[in-house]
Amino acid sequence: MLAGLFLAANVAHAEPPSDWRKSSANAAAIGFDAIVLRPLGLAVVIASAGAFIPAALLSSPGGRDSFNTAREVFITNPWNALVGSKLGDF
């Protein structure tokens, strides 16, 4: 019961959004990101992981630095683009 009072007090002091259009545009951006862009990003990560295998084989004669560059381009960058940003922040 005591926790309910604290939660009710926090809700009562929450500030309403200053502009309803801004919050609905943000909700639309989050929805578009979650429904369209994130699955496409996952497809890009899977495709780039498949492209990494031949790239790693071709870059391995160049040494460890070439292999690390290929890994960064084909694995690390797409993964960070997929999970590194908040929903709706593209």
Outline the biggest β-sheet.
Answer: none
N-end to C-end Cα span: 42 Å
Share of helix, binned: over 70%
Based on DSSP secondary structure assignment, what is the total number of beta strands? 0
**Mean pLDDT across all amino acids:** 82
Number of helices: 3
Would you identify the regions where 5 or more consecutive residues have pLDDT less than 50? Answer: none
Report strand %.
under 5%
The radius of gyration computed from the alpha-carbon positions, rounded to a whole number of angstroms, is 22 Å
Name the structural class: mainly alpha
Listing every helix as H and every strand as E from the N terminus to the C terminus, the arrangement reads HHH
Shape: elongated
Keywords:
single chain, 90 residues, mainly alpha, 3 helices, 0% strand
